[in-house]
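Attaching the record inline, Q. Sequence:
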Amino acid sequence: MSAQSDAELREIIGLNPIAVVGCSRTPGKAAHDVPRYMHENGYDVIPVNPHAEEIFGRRPYDSVANVETEIGMLNVFRPSEEVERIVDQVLARDDVDAVWTQRGIRDDDAARRVEDSGRTMVQDRCLKVQHRRLVG
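Structure, as predicted:
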């Protein structure tokens, strides 16, 4: 299903851990600052970035497929053109309950596939903004 209401968004924001595809090691970038904010607010943030050696004191995974721990929510900081490939990896797993793409990132066909699998999709919204607004 596509989450739209505040109650639905609040439920998704409660999912933990959060794997972050495109998580950056560079402070000042949204792909670093948003996951850092979530980490500072008690979330287990799992970085996914094949080009980084360490983010938030953790070794990042190369891909969603390689994440060895359970994932509650997948947060995407990659271009819209890459969402389809990322969703393919999500659909191969049983543990991802929701996919959340950040502002400016949207793929309606991939979103439909996520929703058809019984999972929730949030597109084109900032997780940090919604967390601050709904959880505080």
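The chain has a mean pLDDT of 96. Residues 6-134 form a domain with the Rossmann fold fold (CATH 3.40.50.720).

More tomorrow.
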